[in-house]
Specification:
Layout lengths: L4 E7 L3 E8 L4 E8 L7 H18 L7 E8 L3 E2 L4 E2 L13 H9 L3 E5 H12 L8 E6 L3 E7 L2 E2 L31 H4 L1 H10 L7 H6 L9 H9 L3 H25 L3 E4 L2 H5 L1 H14 L2 H5 L2 E4 L6 H17 L2
Keywords: Kinase, Transferase
GO molecular function, one term: glucokinase activity
Family: Belongs to the ROK (NagC/XylR) family.
Length: about 325
């Protein structure tokens, strides 16, 4: 009997998920759980995630023999050769976690490890807005900001598998502290937590009523989702925050475009939810800071897979290996 399904483990700093898909790239089911890395060690989280995977298989009446393999997607840095998660900023305490061997020992299946942004780039290149592109940049925007590069029609990893860390370029010297330990990183200025922090820091100006009401009147409860929702409702305060964030993001992208000259940039997660409230200032900042010919030759798009981009990304590395590297 051929193996007709794949599992994807999507490990994030806020939440983690298990995704079931067919080998012909159709998403079948998903389950998610909070990660809470500040409260639990890596082994506890991963044990719960593997239990979640078994529960999903049981619910879908899929046996382990029906699986072609498992892909594990996580924010970097990763050691792809050794199969390790190596102290990602958004997973404190996850130091050299042997994720590949952990999953293999429990499922006895092939396991592919990939950086979440690289996986997102693969997903959009294979199935989404970047289909057919030869030179593509993908940014995942959530708890952190990661980048994936498709160059000359191939996923680019760099010497140590660390290429594409666009979120950790310095935008503001002496700016806010990033989870990576540096100051003024793009991630510290434009990620989900950064948007929430900017909103809380701006409360003193008294223009925050809509955002604050969405957080039940408690500044500590404000999230990026509240800011985006208020901006979409026409709230000037929230729109101004997203314009500031979009400008920072555009500066970072202009740096990358000037170096790599891609044909498209695809923005996932937060950008999909925010839409033009974020994309318009991004495009404006890129146009102001790039050579005109480079900017004109590059499309800046929301992820074509929409809110499902992370689910496709969770299974894309294994699907790519099954159908391209081995086919």
């Amino acid at each position: 009997m051929p193996a007709n399904y794949v599992l994807g483990f999507d490990i994030g700093g806020t939440k983690s998920a298990v995704i079931l898909a067919t080998t012909d790239s159709t998403l079948r089911a998903r389950m998610q759980m909070p990660t809470r890395p500040q409260m639990r060690d890596a082994e506890t989280v991963l044990s719960e995630l593997t239990d979640l995977a078994r529960a999903l298989l049981e619910e879908e009446n899929i046996s382990q023999d029906d699986l072609a393999g498992i892909s594990v997607v996580c924010g970097g840095p990763l050691d792809l050769e050794k199969g390790l998660i190596c102290s990602p900023p958004n997973l404190p305490g996850w130091d050299n976690v042997p994720i590949v061997s952990f999953v293999q020992e429990r499922f006895h299946l092939p396991v592919v490890l990939e950086n979440d942004a690289n996986a997102g780039a693969l997903a959009e290149w294979l199935f989404g807005a970047g289909k057919g592109a030869s030179h593509l940049i993908y940014l995942t925007m959530g708890t952190g900001i990661g980048g994936g590069l498709i160059l000359d029609g191939k996923l680019y990893h760099g010497k140590q598998g660390l290429a594409g860390e666009i979120g950790h370029q310095t935008i503001l010297p002496n700016g806010p502290l990033c989870a990576c330990g540096k100051q003024g990183c793009l991630e510290a200025l434009a990620s989900g937590p950064a948007i929430a922090r900017l909103a809380r820091e701006s409360l003193m100006y008294g223009r925050h009523k809509r955002v604050l009401s969405m957080a039940d009147g408690k500044p500590a409860n404000i999230t990026a989702e509240h800011v985006i929702a208020a901006a979409k409702e026409g709230d000037n305060f929230a729109q101004g925050l997203l314009e500031e964030v979009g400008t920072y993001l555009g500066i970072g992208l202009a740096n990358v475009l000037q170096i790599l000259n891609p044909e498209c940039v695809i923005l996932g997660t937060i950008a999909v939810h925010a839409g033009e409230c974020l994309l318009e200032p991004v495009r404006k900042a890129v146009a102001e800071r790039c050579w005109a010919r480079i900017a004109a030759g590059c499309r800046i798009l929301p992820a074509g897979l929409g809110i499902q981009v992370q689910d496709y990304a969770a299974v894309a590395p294994l699907l790519y290996r099954l159908h391209h590297e081995e086919g």
